[in-house]
Amino acid sequence: MSLSAIGSSIGESVTLKLNEIAATLRARGEPVIHLGGGEPKSKPPIEALVAAAGLLNTGEIRYTPADGVPELKRAIVGYMERFYDFAPRPENVMASGGAKQAILCALQAILNPDDEVIYPAPYWVSYPEMARLCGARGVAVYASDGSFCPRIQDIERAVSPRTRAVVINSPNNPSGAMYSEEFIADVVGFCEKRQLWLIMDDIYQRLIFDGRKPTNAWKYARDKGEDSKLIIVNGVSKQYAMTGFRIGWAVGNRRVIEAMTNIQSHQTSGPSVLLQMAAAAALNGDQSCVESLRTTLENNRNVLVSRLKCLEGIRVHPPDGTFYCFADFRAYEKDSAKLARFLLEKALVVTVPGVEFGMDGYLRISFCGTIKDITDGVERIRWALDPSSPKELYVGGGRKLVRDWT
Ligand SMILES: Cc1ncc(COP(=O)(O)O)c(C=O)c1O
Predict the structure, then answer these.
(1) Is the CB of 120 inside a 6 Å radius of any atom of ligand 1?
(2) Which has the closest alpha carbon to 70: 280, 262, 260, 236?
(3) Which of 49, 166, 243, 388 is the most exposed place for a label (fewest CB within 10 A)?
(4) What is the pLDDT of residues 337-371, one digit of tens each?
(5) Considering the chain, what is the average pLDDT of its residues?
(6) In angstroms, rounded to a whole number, what is the distance separating the alpha carbons of residues 229 and 244?
(7) Pick from 168, 187, 164, 169: which is nearest to 110 by CA?
(8) Is the CB of 203 under 6 A from ligand 1?
(9) Rounded to two decimals, what is the model's pTM?
(10) From the alpha carbon of 124, which atom of ligand 1 is closest?
């Protein structure tokens, strides 16, 4: 079959595929523990549900402006005022089908074929594929000190004449690391100096721990006018546990937002009005759900890190935010895809191989599930990896896992 170069080069989303595998195994009655997930388990805010249901009952579910309904754009402006200390104008805002679509539209609006977009490693799995969707090339930047946080010199070294944009995600999926204020200030200044676009993927912005403050790249921008090349992306998926509502947004200069809106208008015509109204209600409503999710995640993080630290040879850097821990399993196995497959087959635990995020030998372990999932999941990993563990492990419901390897 003859597919296009882009059509044949894009891989499936590994994380979505793992959700599918876990669901299939569960449907077969297998006691799978899913530590590969990327969504909080709490309920969306009640205001969001009521807003969507109320509109649904009217039957008036129509097209909206491609950049979003005024109610949602106003709510996004309010959010920006609260968390970024500035109020963009409505023409500087585009609502979209998740932060994912906002980032892709931004890249499509700014990249030409063969351009390069750079991002720190480990990186979110979609960045390289999104670059490819634009006919461009993703370039991962590794910290020269081996940590999860490159310095500005590492970014500088990755820039070529083809570089058009930098994407920064802090706190980061998969490492959970938050880049320092100094690094964010340096990147903003560097991109301004070199006339590069800077996309801040702030999707986990408020899910941060240990008293940290949300990152605000805008405060370091010197160019705050219509020539600014800073694009801020955020959404309701993670902080409001509204992944299935598929609402995100981008804030940028008027011309880029107009170009992104034109692109979106031909892709999807914009997100569903029902979900836009739900997102607006979440942004305008009682915010205690975000704090409650944040504290739950902080507690889960503490439990996961303390359990992982008991596994001999595993190196763990406590995440500053998100709901992911990126642990170094190289002492056991350098091929992370092989290790993740082994843990799924033998211990029925889903993890995501680090190679998908640009760092082999690591596994991404999520702590957005229950404490029981976290503790039982790590116990199963320990059992599977430790050759001195008992031959059988009882996993509830009369089921046991049997060690049939050496
Ligand atoms: C770093 C990062 N950016 C963006 C997204 C997309 O979020 P949304 O559900 O709003 O499309 C995700 C989702 O996993 C993510 O991890």
Answers:
(1) no
(2) 280
(3) 388
(4) 999 999 998 999 999 999 999 999 999 999 999 99
(5) 95
(6) 30
(7) 164
(8) yes
(9) 0.96
(10) 1
